[in-house]
């Protein structure tokens, strides 16, 4: 939008400069046609040439009211005023000079200058007419008033438009900065969830297995070696998750094929230990294909929920139930652990652990965040000593 505006200003400037030289040439020609042998002719020709040279030098000085520009404007007005006194027909050059003065000076200074030029032009024309001609007396002030008003209004509109454009640019810049900041925070939250549901769980399982192996190394070396082998398998799986995580691909269990149900069975198999048995049930058949974000979210939710069971519930059995309905898919994770009071998560025991988990920004908050992104809901039913049932539902497009 700024380019057309500059083009319009340049075109107006060219028209005004051209009009000035046309009027100056016409005034010189008129004077020579009538007063070629007059005593002031050499002065008129010399001043006309000087005025033309001064006017040509003007664009090189810019339009801002610098000392050099103001000096130039004063010389131009002075040369023109002397010419008007010597030859009143040069008064017509006042109109382009209005434009020059209005472009150079602020309005409060330019308007008195325009009034002075107009008064001088009227006086010259009245002396030429020889009597108080109403047309000569009123027409130049009217033309000057119209020209000045139009120019000042256009300048103010341009200033308001420039201010509006600056506000829009600033608003767009602020909006872009806000979007970048929100995007950064969202990406950090996503990274935290991914790390918690993959690498952190793997490291936690490895630590528990290696600690158990260390305790049994002398008394039950066979069992200790089994624990080490399981820890190595978990490390291998975590490495695969890390590589896919770096490349922002689907979870490793889903990438192997077989769909969500097969991936849940693989997770259940890995989470099953001598003290915890994890089972998988399915009710209904998932849509084929199930949206990738839904599959990834449900798998991560299952991993996160089982991590909570393993770390906090002291359960002997956990069950993953995948229920596929026409308009939604539901994942239930139940366990027979010691449970907690969902309304008072900071009480004691597993509840205190859950509270600490929430303060770290993982666990249940991560599950809720995943579901919120997909328009899903989370329901938790639990009581001390009665286990926990977690239900995550995600709406699906109608089949």
Can you give a write-up of this model?
It contains 12 helices and 5 strands. The protein is rod-shaped, with a radius of gyration of 44 Å. The chain has helices spanning 2-35, 41-57, 67-86, 94-104, 107-129, 134-216, 221-246, 252-255, 259-271, 292-313, 350-359, 364-373, and strands spanning 277-283, 317-324, 328-335, 377-382, 388-395. The two termini are 49 Å apart. The longest helix has 83 residues, at 134-216. Among the domains are: 2-132, no CATH class; 258-399, Heat Shock Protein 90 (2-Layer Sandwich). By secondary structure, it is α+β, with helices and mostly antiparallel strands. It is 68% helix and 9% strand.
Note the main attributes of this structure.
single chain, 399 residues, alpha+beta, Heat Shock Protein 90, five-stranded mixed sheet, 12 helices
**Rg, please?**
44 Å
Kindly estimate the percentage of residues that lie in beta strands according to DSSP. Answer: 5-15%
The helix content, as a percent range, equals 55-70%
Indicate the CATH architecture of the domain at 258-399.
2-Layer Sandwich
State the major sheet.
5 strands, mixed
Mean pLDDT, all residues: 81
DSSP, total strands: 5
Overall geometry comes to: rod-shaped
CATH superfamily of the domain at 258-399: Histidine kinase-like ATPase, C-terminal domain
Please identify the top-level CATH class of the domain at 258-399: Alpha Beta
Which stretches of 5+ consecutive residues score pLDDT under 50?
345-361
- Would you tell me the structural class of the helices and strands? alpha+beta
Q: How do the helices and strands follow one another from N- to C-terminus?
A: HHHHHHHHHEHEEHHEE
Number of helices: 12
Strand order of the largest sheet: 1-2-3-5-4
The N- and C-terminal alpha carbons lie at a distance of 49 Å
CATH topology of the domain at 258-399: Heat Shock Protein 90
